[in-house]
Request: fold
Amino acid sequence: MTLVPGDEVCGIEEFAPAEGTYEEGDFVYASIVGTKSENAQKRIVGVNGRGVRGLARGDIVYGKVMDVYDAVALIQFEAVNPHLGAHSTYCYLRISEVRRGYAETFREYIRIGDMVRARVKEVSPLGIHVTIADRELGIIKPACTRCRSWMEIKGDECVCPVCGNRERRKTAEK
Ligand SMILES: [Zn+2]
Reply:
């Protein structure tokens, strides 16, 4: 099972928090995306994930939308700067960072499978948060929710050349 930051891993009585986790109240929570690893001998629990190193606020990242929850979306990205490491990693997009102004749901702005250009807003032990609110940020390649083909961006609309589906996104201005 994949854990995401904030997921409860276990009670503090069971295991002490190790790498990739933090303690709050009576529980241990995941601080990164990854899988749970328990060490029964040492009575510690950690989360094995991909590290988050070297990224800083303001960096541009390109990634793919992996999952969309109510208030946050999970994006897997490759850092553009090779000095930041070749490994792909995960970042989070809060719904408040999807556009300027209020957005009720992600539905009209991003969908699973889309390719996105985002800017790092915050790097913390709990993960990387990005924004796509600015004009030059957003979806650069929308994936059709019907047939998974790449859609063409035509003004305010995205049009699927394969099935003819039309959808909306928060697209990046060129
Ligand atoms: Zn389609």
User: Anything to note?
Assistant: The chain has two domains: 2-49, 60-142. The mean pLDDT is 87. The radius of gyration is 18 Å. The domain at 2-49 is CATH 2.40.50.100 (OB fold (Dihydrolipoamide Acetyltransferase, E2P)).
